[in-house]
Structure formats: structure tokens, C-alpha cells
Amino acid sequence: MLTIDIGNSRIKWVSFQQGEPVNHHALEYSADTFDSVISRLGLPVNGGRVMVSLVAGTSFKSRLVTLLNKNKRYNISFAKTRVKQCGVTNSYESPEHMGVDRWLAMIAAFQSPLKAAGEAVCVIDCGTAITLDIVDGQGLHLGGLIMPGLKTMREALVAKASRLHIDDEAGADISGILSLASSTENAITQGCAQLVLEGISGIVERHKRNIKSSLRCIITGGDGEWVSRGLGQENDYEPLLVHYGLRLVANESR
């Protein structure tokens, strides 16, 4: 099985054999570079079913199908957010308004061996936007939050403050995210990064008290690794969470 996750700024594919990931690759893209990026992703040719998570907009759907067909991939399914699926019940009155990547991440986290049976789980996906969702031990989605990701936050600040400038490389350095900065570039990045970490930490602690039960945090997304390292609470980092969700949905729909 081949799974493809098309987010707001990145495309990632994972190849599964006997339920386990054996290969994967990811690249950033834009509307103009979408076709060329797909061709450079090194998608496996031929094979079985393709499961896709697409939040980038419907205009990309037909383009992706055309490109996959060129790779002799014809059995293509696009995941959709449901009222209930794989043991998880959605809290949204209109489930279709929830990004399918959030839904898939919740499904994978709820079914994950990383958490104990009956344990609530907090799913944190760190990308262009950061989403945080809590699912209780019975699979009920208690709700979620959406906030700007690190890159989005940095770019918004620079766009609104004409005298602030960041170099793409210098501004991307988050190695000292828990320290004070000695340059404008690092002050912006570290300030935004620490805001992300402290914000997530405070939200998790507050809701852990509210639900009055054990809460396992599982983190994913392009910025997930440094968030996982910098977060004060115990957590697990799973970069393929959405893809595990796609695999679970595919298995249920057989």
C-alpha cells in the first residue's frame, strides 16, 4: 500500500508492506511546483492501493490522479473526515469542516500501541498550522485547537514589522530554543518557538486537569521533532502518524 499526505506546504509518501512502513520521502511544494515535486518524490511505480490525505484544496486532486496514473497507479482513494471511524467519534457538528489530516492523526493516535488501553490521548500536529486535539479513552473527540505554526508566526511578524528582517537559514535555527538570543533573526525564531512550546505545554496541563485522567501526548508534523524535544511534558514523537491513520482507514474499508 502507498499512502500520500498532501498538507499545506509539504507532500509525503510512505510505502507499507505487511502493515509496516518500508520506505518514505517528503518534499515541500507550492501550487506552481506541485507537478514537478510529485515527479521528484520517487513514488513507487505499480503496486496496490493508494490512500491519500489531501487538505491542500480540490484543485490538486485531479492533478494528483493524473500524475499517479502515469506511474501506473489506478486504485486511488481519498480519505474523508467522518462522524465515526476506527473507534473514534467526531465532536464536530459538520465533520466535513475538519481537516482530514487531523482526523487521521486522531484515529492513529487512539489506536496507537504508544498509549495504554482506556488512556486519553492528546494529538499535536505541528506544521504550517499547529492543531491540538484530545480524544478520551473511549474514542470520543473532546475538541481541539488550531494555532499558527513556527514558520507562519515568523512570517506574519516580519510582514507586519517593516524593520524586522530574517534570513531563511539563520531564521530557521532552533537549536537554542530555550535560550535568549543575541541577534534579531534568532530573537524572532526563538521567541516564536518558545511561544509555541509554552503555549502547547500550558494547554496540555490545563486540559489534563480538566479531564482528570492520564493523558498521553503524541506529536507529529514537520516541526514535530523539535517540539517533542523542547516540550516539558513526557510525549511520543511519531512522524508517520497521518500515514498510520490512512492505513487503518484502508483496512477498515476493505
How would you portray this structure in words?
The chain is of the alpha/beta class and 254 residues long. Among the domains are: 77 residues, 2-Layer Sandwich (Nucleotidyltransferase, domain 5), CATH 3.30.420; 86 residues, ATPase, nucleotide binding domain (Nucleotidyltransferase, domain 5). The chain contains 8 helices and 12 strands. The strands form 3 sheets. A 5-stranded mixed β-sheet has the order 3-2-1-4-5, with helices on both faces. Helix 4 packs across helix 6. The radius of gyration is 19 Å and the shape is globular. It starts with a strand and ends with a helix. 36% of the residues are buried. The mean pLDDT is 90. It holds the Pfam family Pan_kinase. Homodimer.
Biggest sheet architecture: 5 strands, mixed
* CA distance, first residue to last residue: 13 Å
CA-based shape: globular
| Derived structural class | alpha/beta
CATH fold annotation of the domain at 114-149 and 190-239: Nucleotidyltransferase, domain 5
CATH architecture classification of the domain at 114-149 and 190-239: 2-Layer Sandwich
- Spatial strand order of the main sheet: 3-2-1-4-5
Q: Compute the average pLDDT.
A: 90
Order of helices and strands: EEEHEHEEEHEEEHHHEHEH
What is the count of β-strands? 12
Rounded Rg: 19 Å
What percent of residues adopt helix (DSSP H or I)?
25-40%
CATH superfamily of the domain at 114-149 and 190-239: ATPase, nucleotide binding domain
Poorly predicted ranges (pLDDT <50, ≥5 residues)? none
| Number of helices in the DSSP assignment | 8
CATH C-level label of the domain at 114-149 and 190-239: Alpha Beta
Beta-strand proportion = 25-35%
Cofactor: K(+)
GO molecular function: ATP binding; pantothenate kinase activity
GO cellular component, one term: cytoplasm
Subunit structure: Homodimer.
